[in-house]
Each structure stands twice: as C-alpha cells, then as structure tokens.
Amino acid sequence: MKAIERREAIVVSLTKSSQAISASQLAKELNVSRQIIVGDVALLRAEGMDILATPRGYIIPKASIEERFIGQIACQHTEKEMREELYTIVDYGGEIVNVIVEHALYGELIGQLTIRSRSEVDDFFVKMSENQALPLSHLTNGIHLHTIACKDKKTFLKIKAELTKLGILYQNE
Which positions bind Ni(2+) (predicted)? Predict the structure, then answer.
C-alpha cells in the first residue's frame, strides 16, 4: 500500500468510527509501524483534515458546532475532586471536549479530552496513573477551563448548576 492510499484508509477508518482509534490500532490494521501512522496523521492535519488527538487515540469530530451547544466553564478544585467534576459533567449529558489553562510563559495550553461517559473518565484516570502524569490544572492551583458540548443550553446550565452545588465552579470572590 502506498502512502497516499494509507492516509486515505486512515481517514476512512476515523470517519466510520464512533470511538477514538489509537495509532497502534491503525498501525496493526495497515501493517505499518505506529510511527508511520503518527507521521501520516501529522501530514493529514497539515493538509487541513480535522483530526483530533485524544488520550484514547485519534478522532474526526462528527457533530458540527451547529448541532450542539458549546459552552465553557471555569473550575477550581483539588485533584481528589477531579473525578467528581468529570462524572458530573458526563452524568448530566455533557462531553468534556478539552481542558484549558493559562500558563505564564506559554499562554493558553489546551489538552484535548473528548470524554463522554463514566467509563471514559475512568480510562482517563487509569492512563494518568499509568503515566504518572499530573493534570494541567496542577500548573494553575487547580484553576482551569473546560469546553463542554451538549445537546442544548438547558443541559449546559444544569451542568453548571450541579458543579456550583459541588463548589467546583470557579468563583473569584
């Protein structure tokens, strides 16, 4: 298989999938190394393909912004409260698109998440533990933003209300 055909196959796989696909999985399917897939995805992104790298693999976003309500929330909590924050968002119908922190030197740092369920929250924590990684909010005393996608504004407001009850929504008082 030539490089162009392989990149087309990657796009087809990502377009058809409702879940993220890891570079290792794509490499196995296409009989190449993981590094080849990572390079192919980098080239596809450079050509303008909307491919997101998430902790679980690559995705091509399916729903356009017009089909969903997109909002941002500011949060502050301890690392121990993080699971409760993420569970609350997905339990009330939200997708955690990303996490954003403001860094003194680099400016805005964004981590793509695309977490839609409790099991994906659990997977995120397993991966964080396995890699001995700290959340981005560790850099900012727990203060961070999340972009949340959900079916409508009413759902978004319910999520905000629940996070406020838990004391997780950031209040600069």
Answer: 77, 85, 144, 146
Q: Tell me the residue type at 114.
A: T
Chain centre to alpha carbon of residue 11: 19
Pick out the residues of the known binding site: 77, 85, 144, 146
Phi then psi for 154, rounded to 5 degrees? -60, -45
CATH number for 3-59 (one of 1.20.120.80, 1.10.10.10, 1.10.260.40, 3.90.1720.10): it is 1.10.10.10
The reply to whether 3-59 and 69-166 are identical in fold is no
Tell me: domain 69-166, CATH 3.90.226.10, correct?
A: no
Cite the annotated binding site for Ni(2+) by residue number.
77, 85, 144, 146
User: Is the separation of the CB atoms in 173 and 114 below 8 Å?
Assistant: no
Choose among 103, 5, 14: nearest CA to 53: 14
* Rounded average pLDDT per 10-residue block, the chain, 173 residues: 86 87 94 93 85 88 67 88 95 93 86 92 93 83 89 95 92 66
Structural domain spans, the chain:
3-59, 69-166
Exposure string over 144-153, b if 16+ CB within 10 A, otherwise e: bbbbbbbeee
CA-based angle 35:17:128, to the nearest 5?
60
